Amino acid sequence: MQKRKIIIINGPNLNLLGKREPEIYGGDSFEEFFKKLQNKNPEFQLEYYQSNIEGKLVSKIQQAEGEVDGILLNAAAYTHTSVAIHDAIGAITVPVVEIHISNIYKREEFRHKSIISSKCVGMISGLGLKGYQLGLEYFKSTNK
C-alpha cells in the first residue's frame, strides 16, 4: 500500500520555534518536533517546508498539485495579510488544513481574521504543536 504524501508548509518566523516566545510557541524546534511526528505517523510520507518569503510559499502550494495528498499549512503572519496565499490555495485541488500553534483569537485583534480560511477544509488553532497531529488525523479519516 502506497503511503499518502502530506506536506507541512510553515511560514515566517516558524524557523525560530524553540527560541521565539517559548511561552506561546513552546521550547521545541520544529525540526525536533517533525522527527517525532514522522515516527508517530508511519502511514504517511511527510515532508516539511518553511520559508519567510511569501512568494516561495505560494510556489510551494502551487507545486503541491498532483504531488501530495494534503497540506498542513501554518501561514503564520501571512494568514492575516496574504491574498496571494489565499488565491494559491484556491487554485489547487489538494485539501489544505490551516494550522496555528497559538490561539489566534486570544492574541492581538489583527490576528483574529484569517484571509486563507475560506479556501481551507478546516482550521486548528491554539492547541500548540499538537495541531499538526490533529491535522494528520483529519487526513487519516478521509480520502481527500
TrEMBL record:
The record marks 20 as: Transition state stabilizer. It catalyses: 3-dehydroquinate = 3-dehydroshikimate + H2O. InterPro entries: DHquinase_II, DHquinase_II_CS, DHquinase_II_sf. GO terms for molecular function: 3-dehydroquinate dehydratase activity. The active site is at 25 (proton acceptor), 100 (proton donor). Gene3D superfamilies: Dehydroquinase, class II. Substrate binds at residues 74, 80, 87, 101-102, 111. GO terms for biological process: amino acid biosynthetic process; aromatic amino acid family biosynthetic process; chorismate biosynthetic process; quinate catabolic process. Keywords: Amino-acid biosynthesis, Aromatic amino acid biosynthesis, Lyase. It is an enzyme of class 4 (lyase). Homododecamer. This is 3-dehydroquinate dehydratase. It comes from Marivirga tractuosa (strain ATCC 23168 / DSM 4126 / NBRC 15989 / NCIMB 1408 / VKM B-1430 / H-43) (Microscilla tractuosa).
